[in-house]
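Proteins fold reproducibly. Next comes a concrete instance:

***
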Amino acid sequence: MKIAHSPGELDQRPRAVAIGTFDGVHLGHRAVLSAAMAAGPSATAVTFEPHPRIAFGYEVELLTTLERRLELIGEAGIAEALVVQFDHEFSQQSPEGFVERVLRPIGAEVVVAGGNFRFGRGREGDLETLRELGIDARAVPLVEGVSSSRIRDLLRAGEIERAAKLLGRPPELDGPVVSGDARGDTLGFPTANLRLDPQLLVPAYGIYAGSALDHRAAISIGTNPHYGGTERRVEAHLLDYEGDLYGERLVVQLWRRLRDEAQFGSEAELVAQIARDVEETRAAEPPA
């Protein structure tokens, strides 16, 4: 997928444009993307960075990094995407200004978005505004029960499989692999320690079954209470994987929450529990 960061980086040609923040690229977002692809050639996504609520000073725990969001949009079948820098100046332009500065320069003839889509200063513009400005604006019905906020709530509660049903895929975490305490090597279960974007939502602490790099993975999210840790860590033990992941970006899927974090009476008890976690991970299946 071609990714542009200004309208001038895309050819001006007839386009069907899907507009949204698309955090999580969940089933509702995918319905909007599919509607753009069905509306005609040159299906294009227009999305915003940072999240508009973050730009206005609100705290938002994101479901996906921008990089992963764009990858998922591309995997949905969109050929080109425009990432619009959302800042105070951008937020103060009129709806007409948004159309003239963003949509017309890329040739938008059809715009699809959720029925609650608003844009422009004070959220003055909506799909009817676009129609009045000569654009074929089409509302995509909301998918019942699916929203980024609902998915956030489920992930905070560790409800991985329920969140996956709303996402249409397993929840994920991604980030570069950084150095850790290297205890996993000593225990016989080496792990990749992920550094996460501080704005990315991290699910409930615990041990999870999942995958990374097409390998099943046992994943620990938490503070390693057995060793008296206080700093949150996300560590993935990739089953049957040999190689050095240090410095590489890793996308980790979460399939199922196995158990809470725990403190053990001895290191031997810890190792025995990790072995059981690994066996459960071998038997786990991705969410249906």
Observations:
- The chain has a mean pLDDT of 94.
